[in-house]
Amino acid sequence: MTITEFRKFILSWYGKNKRSFPWRKTSDPYRILVSEVMLQQTQISRVVPKYKKFLQEFPTLKSLAQVSTRKLLKTWKGLGYWKRALFLRESARKIIKEYLGKFPQDSRSLETLPGIGPYTAKAIACFAFRKKEAFLDTNIRKVYLHFFFSKRKKVSDREILEIAQRAVRKKNPKAWHYALFDYGAAVLKGKRINRKSLHYYRQSPFQGSFRSFRTKAVRLLLSQNKTSHKTLESFLEKEIRKTQKSYSSEEILFSLLKDKLIKKSKKYYFI
Questions:
Q1: What is the tens place of the pLDDT at every residue in 48-68?
Q2: Of 36, 90, 162, 233, catalytic
Q3: Is 233 a residue of the active site?
Q4: Nearest Cα to 143, choosing from 190, 180, 173?
Q5: What is the pTM of this model?
C-alpha cells in the first residue's frame, strides 16, 4: 500500500466513524494541554468528566497557576498519576512567567514545560497550532505497524516516524492524527500489534502496585486536614499487609514527599 492509498483509506474510514470529544472542538492551547496531560496513561472514559470539571474549576492559566495543592489534587482525584496535576500547575506558572502568558507554539519549546515529553509536545503543537510534525502514541503506532510492518518484529519508532512524517496530511494535520487515533482504538482494539514495537512496554496492574499505595495515602490526606505520622504509617502498613507486598510505609511516604504531593511537620502529614 502506498502512502497516498493509506491516507485515502484512513480518511475515508474516519469520515464515517469519527469520535467526538470536548477537546476536539477547540484549538485553545490551554484546554488541549489539559486534555493531553490527562490522557497520558488514562482511559478516555475516565478523562471526559474530569476534563470538564477541571476546566470549570480552573478555566485559565492564571486560575490554575494560583490554586493550592490541596484543591488541585481534590479536583484531580480519580485520574491517578497525581504528579501530572503538579506538572500542569508548574507549566501554567512557567508560561505566565517566562512566556508572559502566551503559549509557545513549537514542539521544542513546549517540551521544556514540566512533564511534557516529545509526544505530548508534538500533539499540542498539532492540535492547537496545526504544526505538521508526526508523532506516535499507542494507537497511532499500532496503525503504522499494522499497515506497514505486518511481517516485522522489533520495529523502532524511528522507522515508523519516517513513514508517519511522509503520511501527515499537510492541509489538516489535526484531523489526520484524530483519524489515526480512532482507527487504532476502534478497528485494531484488542489486537496485540504493539508487541512488534521495539519500544513495547506493558503497564503493570494498578491493584497492589507501588502507585496504588501512594494513591491510598493521598486520598486519606485529602479527606482530613492533617494526619499524625503514626496514623498514616499504620494505615499504609495495614494496606500493604493485605496484598503481601514488600513495600514499606516509609518508602511510599518518602516518594510522595519527594514529589511534593504531601508535606510533613513534626507531628503530622498533610496536603
A1: 999 999 999 999 999 999 999
A2: 36
A3: no
A4: 180
A5: 0.92
